[in-house]
Amino acid sequence: MDLALIPNGAQRCSLKRFLPWMLVWSLVVAWGLVSAFLCFYKGLNQTNMNHYFAFGLWIVFDLSLIALGAGTFFTGFLTHIMGKDELKAIMNPAVVIGFICYSAAIAVLVVDIGQPLRGWFIFWHANVHSMLTEVSFCITAYLGVLTIEYLALIFSNRKLNEIREFTIFGNNLQHMMAFFAAAGTFLSFFHQGSLGGMFGVLFARPFAFREGFLIWPWTFFLFILSSIAAGPSFTLLCVWITQRVTGKELVKRKVFDMLGKISGWLLGSYMILKILDTISWAYGVVPRAGLSFRDFYEGPYGIWLMIAEIGIFGIIPAIILISPRLRKKNGLLIIGALMNIIGIVLNRFAFTIQTLTIPVMPFDAFMSYFPTWQEWGIALSAVGYGILLFSLSYRYLPLFPQEAELNPVKVLGKAVTDSGLVQKR
Amino acid sequence: MEFRRRNFIKFAVGGLGGTLLSPLPWKLIDDIAIWTQNWPWVSVPARGRFSTTNTVCTLCPGACGIEVGKVGSRAVKIEGRDDYPVNWGGICPLGMAGLQILYNEGIRWKAPMKGIGPRGSKEWKEISWAEAIHELATRIKRLRDRGEPEKLAAIDGNQSRSTMAVLIKRLLDAVGSPNYLSMPTQEDTHAMATFLMQGTKGPVAFDLENSDFVLSFGCGLLDGWGAPGRMLGVWREWAKDSSRNRAYLVQIEPRASNTASKADQWLAPLPGTEAALALGIAHVIIKEELYKKEFIEDHTFGFTNWFGANGVEHEGFSGIVLEKYAPQRVEDITGIKTSVIIEVARQFALARAPIALAGRGKGMLPGSLYEFMAVHALNALVGRVNKEGGVLVTNDIPLAQWSDLAYDPVAIGGLKKERVDRAGTPRYPFTKSLIHKFTEAIHESPRSPVDTLLICSANPAYTIPDSQRFIEAMAKVPCIVSFSPFMDETSLMADLILPDHTHLEKMVDIVWPTGIQYPLYALSRPVVGPLYRTRHSGDVIISLAKRIGGPVAGSFQWTCFEEALKERVRGLYDSGKGKTSYSESEPVWRGLATEVRLSSAYSSFKSMWEDLKENGCWYMPSHAFGKWSDAFQTPSKKFEFFSTNIEGALKAHSKGKSFDDALLHLGISSKGDEVYLPHYEEIRSRADEREYPLVLIPIELINLASGWIANSPFLQKTLFDHQLKRDDLFVEVNPKTASKYGLEEGSKVALRSPQGELKVRVHLFDGAMPDVIFIPFGLGHTAYDRYLRGRGVNPNEIIDQIEDPLGGHPVWWNTRVKMIKI
Amino acid sequence: MKNQEHTKATRYGMAIDLDKCTGCGVCVIACASENNVPVMYDESDKTRNISWMQVYILTNGSQFPHTKVIYIPRPCMQCDNPPCVPVCPATATRKDPNTGIVSQIYARCVGCRYCMAACPYHARDFNWFDPHFPEGTDRYLSPEVSPRTRGVVEKCTFCHHRLMRARTRAYREGRRDLREDEYIPACAQACPAKAITFGDLNNPGHTVSRLIKSPYVFRLLGRLGTEPKVYYISSEDWVRRMADNYLPGEFKGRG
After folding, report:
1. I want to staple A71 with a disulfide (CB 3.0 to 4.6 A). Which of A96, A231, A414, B94 is the partner?
2. Cα(C219)–Cα(C224) distance, rounded to whole angstroms?
3. Contact yes or no for C41/C129 (Cβ under 8 A)
């Protein structure tokens, strides 16, 4: 039925299969929409956030989404500016992923603030000293860039491409990709760094605080580094999942390898800096606040969290991804990417939740928090929304330039070589 | 088609661009933001002219001067007055939250109501005031016609000397009923102890500001005891300078209360053994001859052995104390170390101006009579009676008496009947009223001895120990009339509700605020007009009397309450003494020893009355220290260690039975001359200690109103989440006790006494005595609004009442319970 | 020249004497009733209720019968170096350079709660609910203090409207400077034990500037660099010990 929209030379499953798949994720999104409605209508009492947990699940999700969305600008940077042409194979999906991550992050943020209808005051009454202002400006601007890049992709749809204006628009954009990549890189550098700075400047929160050189440029670069280490891994993982779900090879193996390698080396260098950072924090900020390292790792967020973040989900995936021998194995490559992502999410979790949870006043209480179904609804609907949009993009847009080459269309009646959705038709 | 689509897209893109360039979306966004700043459902306070009105807070008998800030006709803020002699500019949390009592619609009766349907069905019909008064008057008239005027009874929570209380008592007298009951307070025990040892009936006054050593036997001096506004001011004076002349405070109680924590020394005797500790201290003072010999010789009776009229030798106080209360023995009883007892006794006796205070918590409930006597004996030993910084013996305020009542034969007949609670009879010779005996009497007789029960300014169904028993008794009373402005537990049981104004809507007086050391008459005035169709209970009583008619009406000649009150106040003017203005720079307590200052400031009663209304007080800033004839009005004209009044009462009570039986009957376990002397009576619970191994002690907190006035939502803000969490009340348990029961912070437990069971949670507190459970009074309402109803539990429900020997008031701090983890 | 002017600026501050504070809670209620602070149904939820002045209880940790409790009333610390101000993205909070008071513009606050994350004292409360007042009690609300809506952060302002009131009066009387007792926040005025002293820390004539020179003075989390203008006084070592974080062996008591 929608054959006219499906990219030339690509095979897609039937609508009968596609629609139920979409329905499942639509339900998740609907859950989120109901939650968002409740939050708008009744206020943030619908969450379990409180004065102690001023930030909760949503901010963790937002920070993670933005870190994982970093794959886009970084791939763009490598492709268009550094001239790594191999990565062109995943440039399009990277743009879609980036668009999804950033738009979802902003949507979640809109629910998260107490007065969404005047959220634009951040721009109108901007406080230039606030990291959050910088982050808001940059991610909004960058979402604009991503929107244009994504529009260019949309216009490459077979049907839309028939419209001359769109073709011209799309073509022009293609020529300007280097510019957008540069703009994206510039904006991303700022806000990825500022997101770290957001916590690093909280000088009355010793868990997050970094002083002098350790905040600028150190923390900024730690966040940038960690995001560009996780971003390619996330792109890799998304593409790999797409391959698994569709049962098609969409990207050549060496592209995966390259992404893994980039992630690995970045993660490795990040780990070194992060460990140095942690040590200098433990011997600097911590004793100056009159605290000992142990004070930060008591209660539910014990030392295991740090071991998990830096050891298990930091050093191990770095080794896997750096070693050509290890990342050659498909399974290990994927596990490495996944662990890398988990590590970065843990890092964002620690910066958000642990910063707020560790009682600073010695007589203060340790509070615990678990999100309500509304909070989960909104967070998971971001995932649902991402899958919906990616599925649509994959189905109707020529996301993978190597797809046709890797999947030559077979004669009718003959079974398709690779397994997956198409074959089971 | 392509053409059309292309056109459409062009149109759409152009339209979008155009709209974005137009001011429309931006204006809309801005308007929406402005809307969020003016949400219609958010209350915006109305503007108006700012003004202030001075008045007096009458929520408790503490009488703090307050200034109420107003905007237009609305009261918006309460502040303490520093130009008022009582409270030093401060007020207590309840007083500060007074506007929530005034304005909280959910807790107030807004018009006279008549219960329809079965009692407790909470179905009401609004009626007119005329109907309400007619109905009640008819009922009372009928009682009188039947010659049963004593079947009218009143439970009154107004301060006993206040005009409201006097007026209600007068109504009962005029009708012919002896059954006027006042709500029990600690002042009752103080009054009895003072009467037995000094023979005086004036209020008990403590010159704390001038004391330099305070030995407090459980008084929560900083937890709301006495007049809380004044006490916190006294604390300010004590704590003013940590180096010089600071009063030394010794707090004696089984829990690290605020007072104990702020005290210089905290002693924690086993609960209920305070009298033994006081006598142990007395022992040391006597043994080491640290007592004031002159005072003892000149002004006391029964200190040493003496011979009665029949030639029988009586043992003196000193002999018995030396014999029975050696510190080692007292250590066995109280758990306080001998060395500590000796040290405290020496410090107390050698201080410049020491004072010993008996009491418990906020003083809302009565204490133990012999204990109060034992503590007061300490004041006598060190000669601190009628001395600066000591216990001042006072006479009443010179208020005018109303004209005599016109008793008719019906009234005379009724007044001859025995009181339902038997207070004042040989069984309870010194007690004014005994509400729990009243309850018992109703329970015991097949038909209620009370037909019509008036309840004013009191919520006995909630505030008295074993409240459940009271509620059950009320079911038998045919007609309950509540004057409460609040939908409290008691008024919800009533058949007729005649709602009073709240404190900020009416003029009432407080005669001599609790514990103040000089005569003070406090007068409040309405700050705002009545918000609802309520009526001043004083006016209602007068109208009621008029409606009853006959001689009853004749005793109530006034047109309104204010007139009646004014008539009393005239006595102040006629005395020619006192003043109505106050300046912070001249605190009363500093000038007490100086000459009596007479005031001739008022040219007429009218001018004084105006001043009194404006300033809210008349007071006499002086004290006649040397006048011993005023101080001791006992048969011996001396301070009596050996109470001849007890001797007389026992004689009367033992008529027709053996002396030992009489003692047993009165609950006294000691024998011989000790009976007449301050001594330690072990008050044992009837419950089996093995089955109920723990002791439950209710505690009173300054920020948790537990009396007739219920806690207000503002006060809930000040409670910690280890005191109340959601609907769960926490009890304080020592960690050692808790570990015996396998309890952790927040564990849920059931506390079971022979009277019932409460479900609470546990707060581990090192400051709680092991094996004692401390539970706050003031929560667990079953009435009021959703801010109070069902939150926490009311300890009164499971308190096991034991009668205090001689006095007969229920002992509420010695309930044995068991704790079951749930 | 510039420096001179700077030292002349007023720095309003507070000294709270914990030796005097009896924990009665009057300051909390005075504050709440002065500032139109909403009253939730469940005020026992201290993580969600609104209380600009919050009282903390400290126990000395000794066993019965040596246990002692003290109370720490905690208004906004009105930091000289407020961690909350620079982080606000919408400039909804700022420190007045002339008074040192940290203000909050409710109508501008977008409710991002970044300031709450920045403040280690929990001095800032977010309106998780629509402001609620028990039925009928909206009649005591004061027009001097702006009402808040759901979704914004609010905090103690040292009763800024009282400063405005005092200034207006002084202006009418042709005065530029305020007397010490002319402007006092509701909590300090209400404290029945007079444990709270308020005034200009820069004015040597004000009692508070003398009090903060006491050897028993401390500030909450003094070492974090927030420079609170709320000072505490306690003669008890254990209180001062528990009020801040110290490395082992670092705290030196004064006996």
Report:
1. A231
2. 10
3. no
Least confident of A281-285, B343-347, B796-800, C249-253: C249-253
Range of the domain at B317: 205-393+643-651+658-676
**Chain A contact for B244, CB < 8 A?**
no
Query: B: neighbours with 3+ CB pairs under 8 Å?
Result: A, C
Q: Of the given ranges (A252-256, B625-629, C94-98, C122-126), which has the lowest mean pLDDT?
A: B625-629
Token pair in block for residue C36: 């139109």
Tens-digit pLDDT profile for residues B58-115: 999 999 999 999 999 999 999 999 999 999 899 999 999 999 999 999 999 999 999 9
B244 — pLDDT class (breaks 50, 70, 90): low
Nearest chain A residue to C244 by CA: give it: A362
Residue among C206, C243, C249 nearest C228 (CA) = C243
Q: Is A167 buried (19+), middle (13-18) or exposed (0-12) by CB count in 10 A?
A: middle
Which residues on neighbouring strands pair with residue B55, listed in sequence order?
A: B66
In a domain, residue C68? The reply is yes
SS3 (DSSP) at B681: coil
Q: pTM for the full model? A: 0.94
Domain extents in chain A? 2-423
Strands B64-71 and B639-640, how do they pair?
A: unpaired
Counting as contact any 3 or more CB pairs under 8 A, the partners of C are: A, B
For residues C199 and A160, which has the higher predicted lDDT (pLDDT)?
Answer: C199
**Could you tell me whether strands B756-764 and B802-803 are parallel, antiparallel, or unpaired per DSSP bridges?**
unpaired
Interface test with A, best of B29, B39, B763 (most A CBs within 10 A): B29
**A2-423 maps to which CATH number?**
1.20.1630.10
Residues contacting residue B150 through CB under 8 Å, at least 6 positions apart? B176, B177, B178, B179, B414, B415, B417, B420, B449
Q: Residue type for A135, please? A: V
Q: Note down the domain range covering C164.
A: 12-242
Q: Kindly determine whether residue C190 and residue B90, on different chains, have CB atoms separated by under 8 Å.
A: yes
The span from the CA of B484 to the CA of B540, in Å, is 12
- Record: contact B37-A118, CB cut-off 8 A: yes
Q: How far apart are the first and last CA of chain C?
A: 44
CATH number at residue C199: 3.30.70.20
**Number of independent structural domains in chain B:** 5
The ipTM is: 0.95
Q: How far apart are CA B170 and CA B161, in angstroms?
A: 12
